[in-house]
Amino acid sequence: MVSKTDDIPASVPKCKVNTLDLAEGETLDGKETTKASLKDPCVCGHSADTSVMNGGGAHNHLEESKQDGAGDTDGGEDSNEQEVIVIQDTGFTVKIQAPGTEPFDLQVSPQEMVQEIHQVLMDREDTCHRTCFSLQLDGNVLDNFAELKSIEGLQEGSLLKVVEEPYTVREARIHVRHIRDLLKSLDPSDAYNGVDCNSLSFLSVFTDGDLGDSGKRKKKGSELEQIDCTPPEHILPGSKERPLVPLQPQNKDWKPLQCLKVLTMSGWNPPPGNRKMHGDLLYLYMVTVEERHISITASTRGFYLNQSTTYTFNPKPANPSFLSHSLVELLSQISPAFKKNFTSLQKKRVQRHPFERIATPFQVYSWTAPMVDHAMDCVRAEDAYTSRLGYEEHIPGQTRDWNEELQTTRELARKNLPERLLRERAIFKVHSDFAAAATRGSMAVIDGNVMAINPGEETRMQMFIWNNIFFSLGFDVRDHYRELGGDAAAHAAPTNDLNGVRAYGAVDVEGLYTLGTVVVDYRGYRVTAQSIIPGILEREQEQSVIYGSIDFGKTVVSHGKYLDLLEKTSRPLKVQKHNVLNEKDEAVELCSSVECKGIIGNDGRHYILDLLRTFPPDLNFLPVEGEQLLPECLKQGFPRQHRHRLACLRQELIEAFVEHRYLLFMKMAALQLMQQKAHKDSKMAALTETGSPAPVANPPCTEDGISGLAQAKQLAESLAADDGSDPKSREVVLNACKAVGSISNTSFDIRFNPDIFSPGVRFPEDSVDDIQKQKQLLKDAAAFLVSCQIPSLIKDCLDHSALPMDGATLTEALHQRGINVRYLGNVLEFVNKTPAKAQLEHFYRIGISELITRCAKHIFKTYLQGVELSALSAAVSHFLNCFLSSFPDAVAHLPADELVSRRKNRKRRNRVPGGGDNTAWASLTPSELWKNIVSEAQSYYHFTLHCESADQVVEEYGLQKITLLREISIKAGIQILIKEYNFDSRHKPTFTEEDILNIFPVVKHVNPKASDAFHFFQSGQAKVQQGFLKEGCELINEALNLFNNVYGAMHVEICACLRLLARLNYIMGDHPEALSNQQKAVLMSERVLGIEHPNTIQEYMHLALYCFANGQLSTALKLLYRARYLMLLVCGEDHPEMALLDSNIGLVLHGVMEYDLSLRFLENALAINSKYHGPRSLKLALSHHLVARVYESKAEFRSALQHEKEGYTIYKNQVGEAHEKTKESSEYLKYLTQQAVALQRTMNEIYKNGSNASIMPLKVWIPFLLDTGLGIVGGILLYRHIQKDLENLKAEVQRRQQLQESGKSMEELSEDSPLQLEDKIPMDINID
After folding, report:
1. Angle at the Cα of 622 from the Cα atoms of 616 and 624, rounded to 5 degrees
2. pLDDT value at position 380?
3. Which of 140, 238, 288, 1018 is found 20 to 30 A from 711 (Cα to Cα)?
4. How far apart are CA 641 and CA 1126, in angstroms?
């Protein structure tokens, strides 16, 4: 890792924090040791802790950085930014000597623990079969948990010996588990089954393994490899086929090499007492590939063959016994096939990219899977019946105290960077373990495998405790939510509560604690899993609640300490302190909603829970008698009746609203100040005429050059400087505050009272005015959502800065702007009324598909609750048939014999929630389901759907059934068999019960953030946008290291980081590095987001570009075809992003002289660009030009001329005749005309003189290639493989770097050169 000091060359650091990266015997750069130090120690006299990067907690980073940076405004570019620098302690090399292998070198860092060397050895090909060993230095055993730097005598070149240790039962079990993991290391079944954080990745299928070195060995593109460029039929433009099978191409590595037929625990376990005294620990039973059945004893000295058979117990050692310290050594002696296959399996395992094997932090489920053979597996069988979660066997005391772990990690120190990294890493790790445990527990609860703590009550009212986690079901049990909407409110409350937990967790106030919370939807039930407050189960709720209300505000209590703690959260969360009346009509002060309860646990910590009303109510969905909304809401039909009364505004909306008000506040104050100044100036002028000296007043800043925000900043400074002493400026502030609804009269401060309009909450008489103000503020916020946020979303979609591709990315786009999904109907209505509706067709289609699948999900949820476990696959396939099949009378198959037997034994069975003899699901018909969907759309989204069947929907809205299937499967957690489904057959249903493979949970949880890393990432982005590529690159590398430090190797944010790095590498001319970073980004996106997530599609497109730049044309094409296939599956062909993809495919095909194919893609891109960007767009001009070039290559000059003329006209009208684009286009037109004339002459000559005419060779047009090579086709730079262009690009980049070093800003650069940098790369998916 390179520190950010100037004397070390800026090489790109390798972030190796996860030891699994070291599989290939690479060197270990070591863990980050992070020392915060300042670049310019004495700039502002701040200490490193207050540096710009740190922020004060998770909110208001922007404000803090403004304040911190204000120390030295006119210094050099960097002088006022203090930066946290992460310095690496230099690593050193040790020699490792393992039994039976040559000594080898390993690079380590002083920060590492001895245990990490153990991990590396257990992963290395030649030592992976050892688990029970110690490391010794000069005969002394090293402590596993000691840091290397604390070990005496350990230095560069020391020899560490691997010494085999005696086994215990625990060690023997760990050994068997490890060997089983090695045998299964290439088997994808864990990824299909969604266990142990395994997930799928298919990149290596398209790149034939690793891209890095193997890529360099391939022939360079200059030789134009002979490659088959024809894509499969279904990928070609205009194809209507949407096959499902190619989603998971066959990976030849997954054809398992069988090493053993069976490896399982023997039925003779555990050893009887007399054998224990001989050192027997456990017995294993195996069948080798050669069909030899063997019994093995694990003893303290190792493993050996014994003489037991299946039916007779004879623990004596066989002859020969082959005693070996590891199972692998033993089996290699017994079975030649094992020896051969195990060796080649390990070779393959270590050749895989580490990112294909590292576990993801949270489980990702796949909605399709092939039929996998169910193999015998002792470890899996054992895990299923124990409550083993994560690493219990490594932790004394078995079950984990989740609450203690979650709260202790929060209490860790956070004064400086190393402490914060340690704290964030611990918080993240515990959260991901907790989410996994909670998910597993929730499934066990719904499957009926956990005993309730109140077994006597009705199933819906039952609560459960398992593995120190408390589980409750999302039903309104004791009429708790009766006034708020009953079950609908009880279903919405957990997600609202989770949002509250997320918000308070992000503010991160010391001393205030929230519960670990995970919300799981599984088999139609919603389960809330929470960590348990110590002592809460021993006492009644009434006694323990010392703050808030347990009956929605009838009785309310408060507590000084809680008020102090919550006061600290009130500014970042915009919650206003307020008084409410309790049952005795006394005013009680609160700083949260009344439902928020404060409980002091037996551990003395202050917990808050029930945070479901952290954010204020959404009045558009909360009709209140006697209250009138603003006209812009009324006009759109608000307020509307919602299912429940818990509809809240999103935190993003509150933030956007407050920011909007802040600008308004500043503008109003500026106006008044200017009027005052003008008034003052005229007075002054009168004075100067009479001869008195006049101070020079600053002219008001009204130049148009200063934007609203800059003006606001200047104004804020002038107001702050006034210090409130000037009564005039005080009055200005007062007026502006009143106008925007600020709660303070002296500064801008908007906060909301979350209890307004809560039924049952009463306010004291003296706060009537305040309450009125708050009501007005809520109405304004509701109007802001409808009149500002929805139109701004549509505007962003029109100018393509937001490009949703599927339901998930659409939801994300809504949420980023603070729009709840319940507004989806409104958003679609808005699109309908937009004049440019045609250019929003893709958005509308995705919106309709999201609306339909969400309605179907609502119906599916209640439908599933009535299905018992034995009929689950039949019920799910029946539902999907009714939803998607064209078969008019889908009939459910009820297994007849099971119905009979079920009646007999129902009395004795412990009933799982909702499990009656309910076969009502079987009577659902397609027409009934679609009627329900239409009425659900009307009642929930207030949107009218015009359809009565799946086929009508496809017809009316242009949807694809395969896309609907993907959306409903992901939303409802269904996993289906991957095969080709015939949706359109009218003679038989599409799905049978054999096609439904599994039902997965859908999990919502908090995502803890790496705050320091995120600041680095943002600063890096800012630097890149200013054009300082090198500095940006260093900051982003720094961010990558910190992200790795907190999240481990796999995370969505690391993916964004790698993508940006790759892009910078590419722009700065380092193509191999770009390729390597982007390859990691693709693998990571596949693993953490899913193989066909829109983000993954984007990453594939970028990787294709870098392969192209590296001359790997066939790989580039394969990747582009893969991206196109995924996009067709996810959103169909009619999407603006498809134009970009097709332009790129067309360009690559043109490059390999496949002109006819190239034309098909480029003409499709032309059509899409014309539709979505309009007839005057420069993108369209470029599309015309690309098509013209292909026609020119085919010597069809007339068509070429026609297209180039179109392009020329657009350029001329849009950028004027003087622009170089227009000039080049006109040059090219001249050239084409000459070529056409020349060709005509030649043809005439041939006609005249027969075949012996002298044919003039055709010239190829070169200058224009350069433009396409360096210009951007829709956000992705395309690289031509013509030597001349390469040199031009290099020269261009060098020129920029020189200019950059000499300090010329990027804006000046970009005007005079075609290399465009549009790198406003957001953290979310769209790059364009």
Report:
1. 105
2. 74
3. 1018
4. 39
> Packing angle between helix 1178-1193 and helix 1155-1173, nearest 10 degrees?
160
* pLDDT confidence of residue 1224: 92
* Tokens (6 digits) for 522: 């599984």
- Is the four-CA dihedral 284, 285, 288, 292 of positive or negative sign? positive
Per cent of the chain over pLDDT 90 is 56
- CA atoms within 13 A of residue 1109's CA, in its CB half-sphere: 30
Which pLDDT score, from 0 to 100, does residue 760 have?
Answer: 84
What was the pLDDT predicted at 352?
86
At which residue do the structure tokens 């096939």 appear? 337
Q: Which residues contact 187 (CB under 8 A, 6 or more apart)?
A: 254, 256
Residue 1300 pLDDT: 52
Mean pLDDT computed over 739-764: 88
d(CA 745, CA 430): 44
Query: Any bridge partners for residue 863, and if so which?
Result: none
List of residues 6+ apart from 139 with CB closer than 8 A: none
User: Under 8 Å CB-to-CB from 248, ≥6 apart: which residues?
Assistant: 200, 202, 368, 369, 370, 978, 1091
Q: Which residues contact 62 (CB under 8 A, 6 or more apart)?
A: none
- Whole-Å CA distances, 355 to 1050, 1086, 1095, 1116: 8, 10, 17, 21
Let me know the angle formed at the C-alpha of 502 by 500 and 503, rounded to the nearest 5 degrees.
Answer: 65
For residue range 909-928, what is the model confidence (pLDDT) as tens digits? 444 554 445 678 888 999 99
Contact 27, 120 (CB under 8 A): no
pLDDT at 133 over 70: yes
Sheet holding 92-97, edge to edge: 104-108, 92-97, 159-164, 133-137, 140-141
Mean pLDDT of 1217-1238: 91
- Tokens matching residue 941: 């989204």
Give CA–CA dist 780/765, Å, rounded: 24
Q: What is the pLDDT of residue 1316?
A: 33
Residue 367's nearest CA partner among 880, 874, 812 is 880
d(CA 1057, CA 31): 19
Q: Among the ranges 480-494, 519-533, 551-565, which has the highest mean pLDDT value?
A: 519-533
Q: List the alpha helices (DSSP H) in 741-871.
A: 768-784, 790-798, 807-816, 824-833, 841-865
Question: How far is it, in rounded angstroms, from Cα 232 to Cα 219?
Answer: 25
- Classify 472 as helix, strand or coil: strand
Residue 101, pLDDT score: 87
Count of beta carbons in the 10 Å neighbourhood of residue 658: 19
Q: Of 406, 691, 387, whose CA–CA distance to 533 is shortest?
A: 406
C-alpha dihedral sign at 169, 174, 177, 183: negative
Render the burial of 1243-1278: b for 16+ CB within 10 Å, e for the rest. Answer: eeeeeeeeeeeeeeeeeebeebbbbbbbbbbbbbbb
DSSP three-state, residue 385: coil
Single pTM value for the model: 0.84
CB-CB contact of 1148 with 1116 (8 Å):
yes
Average pLDDT along the chain: 82
User: Which residues, including other chains, have CB under 8 Å from residue 1188's CB and lie 6 or more apart?
Assistant: 1199, 1200, 1201, 1202, 1203, 1204, 1207, 1228, 1232
Please return the burial class of 283, using the count of CB atoms within 10 Å of its CB with bins 0-12, 13-18 and 19+.
buried
Q: Verify cis geometry, omega within 30 degrees of 0, for the bond prior to 270.
A: yes
Using DSSP's 3-state secondary structure scheme, residue 648 falls into strand
